[in-house]
Structures are given as structure tokens and as C-alpha cells.
Amino acid sequence: MRNRNQVVLPIDLKICIPEDDPVLLLDEICRKLDYTKLYETYLRTWRKVNPETLFELLVFGYMNRKYSARQIEEACRTDIRFMWILGGEPVPDHSTIARFQNEKLTDVIEDLFYQLVGQLCDVGEVRFKNLFVDGTKIEANANKYTFVWKKAVEKNNARLDAKIENVCTVLRERYGFCAETTPEELYESMLRQAQWLQVQFQSGKGHRKTQLQKDIETLKEYFDKKEEYRRHLRICGRRSSYSKTDTDATFMRMKEDHMKNGQLKPGYNIQIGVESEYIIGVGAFADRTDVQTLIPFLNRIRSHSGRIMEQVIADAGYESRENYLYLKENKQKSFIKPQNYEVSKTRKYKTNPYSLENMTYDRDSDSYLCANGDRLHYAYSKTEHTAAGYEVETRYYRNESCEGCQHFGKCHKSKRGFREIKVTPGFVENRKESLANIISDEGVLLRMNRSIQVEGVFGVLKQDYNFRRFLTRGKAHIETQFFLLAFAFNVKKWKNRQIARRFGLDLFPLQALQAV
């Protein structure tokens, strides 16, 4: 029988850890980080557990699919690798770990993450050349049925305005106020009148309320509802909805459908940028589509890394005039797949004489020639200011009349008697330039790599890491959690590339991809 009571000397726990364990690489990386900003979040020098140790514990916990503070606390008591990270320090309780993540790391995690990206750049793994961009929707930690729809609020708000005006019309006549008295002035005057008459406000059963009290309570109820609608619209902003549980979350269509009927769920649109299989940029957005996220996302990477990516590779969801303008202004080569790329390869599209792309443009007369030989001349322009601050001009062209045209009913479906087309100057040229880029040899290679690198990262995070729902609430907190996840992913990827001897290989060769 083994003797468990024998006296043993303390040993170095590191000798019990395999040499190829990722915790050793993580420790080496974390020792090179500058924690100045993290220490500035503390008001006192004494603390139970070192902040650097807590950060390393959190990252290693995420590397092992331990996302809750209680799981990490348990691992610190049972897992020899977590014990080695502690280095003899007391085991932090779950509340300490949670406060550290949600309070201390919120403003500094992005700085620590980009320090890791800088280390990857120093060893030649990241070159800031090819940025593969994509987004996915991750469910928020919010109730699925606590939704507030902006259109419904606006509709109810308009109804309430009409109801208030009708009530105020009756009250002005009842109490002798002029027609110009606003609802707020009317309410204040009625309160003063009740105070002057020393009206005793009654409540509960068996008490009869005066007419003045009833009118005051009616107006107050309407004003409270009005303020509630204002608060809903203020929280919504330019979004179409939000969740009462997590007001930063927007209702979106998810691939994981719990009701199997396309029901919307609260979530965040998470954007990542990948190079050489590493995540080098993270952003959380409330947009349900990707088109408005590209510019702020690229600006964020630029501001924190101090570098501009040479080439941006993205799918058709990112194509827009303002995105093309932004990339051209910053001298970044665009590899954005046009939205009409697949349909443009069909014979029906190429031979369609009614589509704008197949119409002949006469630069001298600034007109388009339709299938019937009539000219659509310039009519007017509209200028819109995009969310990114760009001015996008749309030019409208129309002919005089379509009467007697043999193509009437096929060319367009308008009932106005003439055809009108709208053209965004420069957009067609930008689209053609991006199309030429993606069908070139380099473009084919980059598109094939994009489907593996950035979409592969999401596959690993959702399937292997089993990360499909945030555990925290609020945009700042969920970004902190995803930055920790990205940090953990990069460390494991660094170690795996070392083992596989793929250091310095930023792209998979086309022959290998075709073989797969």
C-alpha cells in the first residue's frame, strides 16, 4: 500500500510540464509585455494576486475553453499548469478573476493584444501585407424575447402624440386655457390649480377622485410613456432594435436558430482581420450587415498597430462606393468580390441588353444608349453623406418617352412612361478594377486563402473552442472577452506553426489548396 503521508520536498512544477506545452510559450510572450497601462488602473500598490499573473491565467484559461471565472478558479487548484503560472501565489477566487476581466482589462486589453501582434511582426510571422476580413454574428448574453423594435416605437410614439393632443384639446376647453397652451404648460398649470384649491389626491379602493386629479394623472401617464419612448429611441440610435437585457446588443439573424423558423436573436457582428492565420484585428459592431463596418475596422487596426495593410481581401458583403474610395485614398489594393460576380458569369447576364452594364455610354453627350436606340440623358443628381463622412453623388439619367417602344415592359417595370437609371460615378470603374484584381493569378490565390484563413478562424473558434455565446454584457465587456479569445488563439496558432515548421509561410500555395 502506498504511503501518502511521506514527507516530500517542494519541487519545481515546470519539470512536470511537457516541453511542447503552449503554456511555456504563453509565459515567454507575457513576460515581454508592457503592463504599464494595466498597473495604472490600480489605486494601491498592494494586491493579493499580481495583475500580470491574473492576465496570464485568463489567457491560458481561454486557451483551454475555460471562459468562466469559476472554471479558472477550479483549474488553479487542480491543474498543474495553472499552479505553475501562479508560482506560489494564492489561488484567486472567482470574484477576483471576474472583476479583473470586467473592470481592469476593459481599457487595456486592446493594447496588450497589439503588443502580441507586434511580437508576431518581430519574428516575421505578420508582415501587414494581406488582410483577410470577414465577420460573424455571435449571440449576446441576453434574453431572446426582451426586444425593442425602433419602427414599433416610432409608430406608437406618433399615436401617443395624437392622443395627447386630443386630450389637451378637451382639457383646454374644460379649464379655460387658450389654444396655444402646450401640453407641458397645461400640466404645470393644472398642478398649480390643484395646489391652490388644496385638492387631496386620493388613491386605493373606496376613494372617489376629483376630475382634476383624474386629468392630472392622465397627462402624467402619457408624459411618462412619452419619456419611455424617447429613451427607447435614444438607445436604438441608428439601429433597428435592441435588447432590454443588453442594450448594446442588436437583434440579428443567426445561423444557430433555436426555433427553426428564422427568428432573430440578440447578438453582435464580430469583425476580424487575419494574416498568416493570426488574428491581427478585432471589432464588435451593431450593424446587421458588413458593408458599414470595413472603414472603422481598418481605422482601428491602423490606429493601434501604426501600420496600413497593403492589400485588403473581403467578400461581396463589403462592396460599396465609400469602401472603394477609402481603400484608394489610403493606397490599399482592393480584392473585394463584386456583388454581381456570380451572376455576371452567366450567359443570360452577358447578353441582357437592358442591364446598365451592357448599355453603351457616350461620354461626349453624357448619355446612355438603350436597346431601342433611344438616349437616356442626364437629368439630375443627388448627393448623400455616408456614415464614414464621404460624399457619394448619384446621377440620374432618363429618356423622354417609352411610347411605342418594342421593348416596353421588358426594359423596365416603371409605369411613369419613361425609363430612369441611376449611376454612381466611379463605382463601375472601381468594381471593374476590383474584379480584375480578384481574377488575376494573385487574386485567385488570395481568395482561396481567404476561405481557409479567416473563415477557418471562425470555424475553430465556434467549433473547437465552442465559443458561440458571450458570457458578459455590454459592448466594452464582450470586446474584452473576444480580445482574450483572440490572444489565446494566436498563442496556440504560434505554437502549432512552430511544431508544424510552417514559420514564415503566410499563404498556402495554390497547388496544395487545389489538391485538398
Structure at a glance:
The protein is 45% helix and 15% strand. By secondary structure, it is of the alpha+beta class. The strands form three sheets. Strands 1, 4, 5, 6, 7 and 8 form a six-stranded mixed β-sheet that branches.
Radius of gyration over C-alpha positions, nearest whole angstrom: 31 Å
- Report the uncertain regions: none
Dominant shape: flat
Class from helix and strand fractions: alpha+beta
Secondary structure layout:
Elements: H1 22-31, H2 36-39, H3 51-63, H4 69-78, H5 80-86, H6 94-104, H7 109-122, E1 130-139, E2 147-149, H8 150-175, H9 183-196, H10 211-236, E3 241-243, E4 250-253, E5 264-275, E6 278-285, H11 294-305, E7 311-314, H12 321-329, E8 333-336, H13 341-344, H14 347-350, E9 360-362, E10 367-369, E11 375-385, E12 391-398, E13 420-423, H15 427-439, H16 441-464, H17 475-500, H18 510-515
Describe the structure.
The model has no long low-confidence stretch (mean pLDDT 90). It is built from 18 helices and 13 strands. Helix 3 packs across helix 17.
Give short descriptive properties of this protein.
13 strands, 18 helices, six-stranded mixed sheet, 516 residues, alpha+beta
